[in-house]
Amino acid sequence: MGRPRTNDADVRERLIACATEMFATRPQESVTVRALATAAGTSTAAVYTLFQGKDGVIREVRDQAVAGLFQDLTAVPGSEDALEDLYALAVAYRHWGREHGHLYAVLFGGAQSFAPSTQVGDRDPVRPLVAAIDRAVADQILAGDTTWIAVSLWVALHGLVTLELAGGLDGTAAETAFRSTIDAVLRGWATPAAFPGLRLPDPAP
């Protein structure tokens, strides 16, 4: 009898799926190569053959998360109003995070660290956000450094999504918190002339 295959596409996908769930639900150091292989129904050799070890698995899971978030944010249609685009991007980010809780946890929950950078890659999920902020600054709606405006908005979004995934916010409270928080962040960076127009109508009770 021949040796079982350890490097086919099915094994690779099982390992990535198991790793995504495991890294999202337990401390990173507790996820061993053996535990990962057992969960995926394969051998430790497969992990090393396909990913060169645990670090390679983490990179692959994170890369898939980044690609998925980038795809959803770049799919948001643009308009002539940079402010409307920023709200639409915030909505899309929140939706992706809630729909892909395990991937979100791997991307921003400790399995990989995140450090804001002035260097934005071509397929960086923050690129559509930065582009909309650049437009808002050029249109004199927002004033400030684009990077730090983006960081402020991301911090708010990350806090909101994390609370929702943890069950700390739901229903009407989540909707109200989302709208009011994003509104407050944008008003904080608004130019004096644009400030009156940066408040959305209060949501219906």
Automatic annotation (TrEMBL):
Residues 9-69 form the HTH tetR-type domain. Coiled coil: none annotated. PROSITE patterns: HTH_TETR_2. It holds the Pfam family TetR_N. Keywords: DNA-binding, Transcription, Transcription regulation. InterPro entries: Homeodomain-like_sf, HTH-type_TetR-like_transc_reg, HTH_TetR, MT1864/Rv1816-like_C, Tet_transcr_reg_TetR-rel_C_sf. Residues 32-51 bind DNA. This is WHG domain-containing protein. It comes from Streptomyces halstedii.
